[in-house]
Design goal:
Layout lengths: L6 E3 L14 H18 L10 H53 L3 H5 L14 E10 L3 E3 L5 H11 E10 L4 E4 L2 H18 L5 E5 L16 E7 L14 E6 L11 E7 L2 E6 L3 E5 L4 H18 L30 E7 L2 E6 L7 E4 L6 H15 L5 E7 L15 E6 L3 H25 L15 E7 L1 H7 L4 H14 L1 E7 L8 H4 L4 E5 L4 H8 L14 E6 L4 E6 L4 H10 L23 H4 L8 E8 L4 E7 L1 H4 L2 E4 L6 H14 L5 E4 L3 H12 L5 E5 L11 H16 L6 E7 L15 E5 L4 H6 L15 E4 L2 E5 L24 E5 L2 H11 L5 E3 L19 E4 L1 H6 L1 H7 L4 E5 L2 H7 L15 E5 L6 E4 L3
Parallel strand pairs: 1-3, 5-8, 5-9, 6-7, 7-8, 14-18, 14-19, 15-16, 15-17, 17-18, 24-27, 24-28, 25-26, 26-27, 31-33, 31-34, 32-33
Antiparallel strand pairs: 2-4, 2-11, 9-10, 10-11, 12-13, 12-21, 19-20, 20-21, 22-23, 22-30, 28-29, 29-30, 34-35, 35-36
Helix pairs in contact: 1-2, 2-4, 5-6, 8-10, 17-18
Amino acid sequence: MPEPHARLTLPPAVPEPAKHPFPVLGTLMPMVAAVVLWVVTSSPFALVFAALGPLVALAGVLDGRRGAKRARRTGAKEREEALAALRADIAREHEAERLRAWTETPSARTVVAGEAGPGWHGADSPVVVLGSGEMPSGLRLDGAPQGEEDRALLAEAAGLAAAPVAAPLAGGIGFVGPAALARAAARAALVQCLHAVRPDRIAVDAAGEGWAWAHRPGRGRPVGIVVLDRTASGDRSAFDDTACVLAVATETAALPPGIATIVRIPDPGTAELVRPRAHRFSPALLGAAEAEAFAARLDARAERAGVAGRAGAVPDLVAFDELPRPGLERRRDRLAATLGIGADGPVAVDLVADGPHAIVAGTTGSGKSEFLVAWIAALASAHPSERLTFLLVDFKGGAAFEPVRALPHVAGIVTDLDDAEALRALESIRAEIRARERILRTAGVAELSRLPDAVALARLVIVIDEYQALMDRFPELGAIVADIAQRGRSLGMHLVLAAQRPLGVVRDAISANCPIRVSLRVLDRGDSIAVIGDPRAAEIEAGTPGRGYLSSGAAGVRQAQFALVDEASIAAIAAADPAGAPVRRPWLDPLPGELRRGELGRLATEPAGGGVAFGLADEPDRQARTIAEWHPHTDGPMLVCGRGGSGRSTALAAIAAGFEASGGGAVHRVAGAGSRVWDLLAAARGGRLTGLLVIDDLDRLGHDWDPEARQAAIDTIAGVLRTARSSGLTVAASASRLGGPAHGLVEGFGASLLLAHAGRAELSQAGGDPALWRPDAVPGSGQWRGRAVQLVHEPVAAPPAGPAVPPFAVQAGRLHLIAAASPRAALEHWQRAFPGQPARLIGAMPAPTGAGVSEPGRPAALIGDADAWNANWSLLAAERDEAVVLVDGGPAELRALVRERSLPPLLDPGRGQLWRAMPGAPLERVRWPA
């Protein structure tokens, strides 16, 4: 569609062709050349060329004039074509502008024919189309006119023929002429007003014969219109100063003073605008029968849309305090509440008698959340918290139910801000179903309404706003909702499910048990029919929040304006409820962020089972918290996995403390110096340990050891894991990830405690439930056997000290053979420790057999590196069986002197430790004397 103020351009004028002057030089130059040629050649024929110059020049002048005429004709033709195209563009722009004008301000004839769109744009004073005629156009032509044709085109573009001639209703409009014509014009104007303004926002006082169809009482502060027929006065007491006048008179003098627009209609085809400016046009006229038929259709449509302006119509706004307020009901067989005002008075519904469940529909802006809040407040004002509780679920940001949070009836509000807590709370509903079944079974009754007053069990109303968002997030909860829908009546559990479009979202098994239906404004007739069995909710006008229809059993479909509740009313309801015990919550509080061992018995809902207690497990589907226990002999060894900072060390400390408290035996921590760890694993390998072997950071165990030593440690742990269930030694270990050589240990663990992981995928790969993953998990929180768990906080002890390593002393009369990675450093150690005992270095070149052995002044020690001893193999072979062997180095130095291939005890680097082999004795750990 063209822009409202389009711009076109006149074609430029045809330019005048350039004049071609006579070529004087072009004429003279051939003549001069011919004379020069004649002088040189003396040929008379040369003079013939002198005549060519004037002939060629004359031909050029004639050809230029001919070309100029041709260009002038072509330019004129092109401009005529451009003008024709411009006329077509003007006609097209005018047609679009005319269509737009008639669309924005439809005529009375279009309105009556039902071709003017929905109308009811608002409550502002409308603009009335008086007829059709030529009006100024918004089209603009750029460019300078070149003649009368261009000036005529400019005039044609500036005017819009057959356009609506309109005037604002504000200030009044007077129609002067023969009575029949003036009344027909006024009828046309009034029909346009009724089409433009909502029926409940317009008030028309049309006294006199033939105007009964037009009367509208209006409500609130509507647009007021007074129709004065052939009189200069009228009763305007029912209207304020904003009321407008449609006056009909046969003479201008009979019109009321101050009329802003006056139209004179001398005959059916002619009208003259007298004021505010003179203008002639064709008037818009409408017959009485047409106007009456239009008014009847308007009333029917307004009734369907709930905006009727007649007496007994539904009000525009209902405050909560305007509703009837009954006293507190303590009966178990009622949950009645008044929700709004209809055409016949207050509209109420009973969740017990009419229910047990309800569906609420409403698009954005319809007031759906406000309706739910008002319903909750109405129920709370009529029923004490000992008889009624609410579980509120808001899946559109969490703010919808904040106004009623302070009510003592509210057991909790579940939002979409925390998926884990939302899922936990909603799964607890299953446990609530079973708990209510047990209470009814114990009391010997079939339904809650028959419970004795002494049994404290309130009805639970579960209100879910944006049910579709809940199902999109947690589709598995549909089975829980369906279970409540089927068994809720007897258990005293009621559902109020609200969605923008319940069609296709609420399952048939659920909707079949929801006889209470409320539909606020919806966008589609199918949605309205699906909810209330009536299409009228799709005809509710936008901008009418709280307007809707209620369908509840035998009462049929009732239209109502539902009440809005304010904070003061909610506070008064909360203050009026008698103080009593806290309401029964359908779920327990979340696990604490920090847990002490002494709190386990108090926070757990069930006693311990005799195992190793290390934390508190959450079981929302049982409404229970149980003590997390590990049974080593049946569960097998325990593996604790989690990212850095997840509390792995604290978890092992909690398990170790629980193991000791359960009488399981001694706890052996595989921690501290490498020598201690090695000795501890050696004792485990030799079957000399019982109790619990605690290994922190199993994936890093021995990472700085010799590969052979590390593999030996892994093999030892693997052996302990294999026999853990049958032997007296079990294992509890932790790791962030098991990779490399330790990967094969995973299968040896029968139980796993999963702490926080970096993401859901990592948790799932570790064998956990990704639904329990939380990005903000605190240290010590995790999952145990598919349940969320919080571990007992136990202090982590400092690493134990390494074993005492004795210094070695010189064995009198024995030669000391020392293999050292740094022979000179070993020599300096020896000389400082034993200044009276000579020692010398051996080189890589072999010494003669017996050198240094039989000669006088024999040294007490021979020192060399692995290469030196390999070169002096004969010396080594002669002395090794009787000498004291010391190794200050690594495996290479050890193999150079010691024939035994079993792994030696681990040395702690940087502590001056050595291996010593005495004749006939195994390797032992010693150190250089200080």
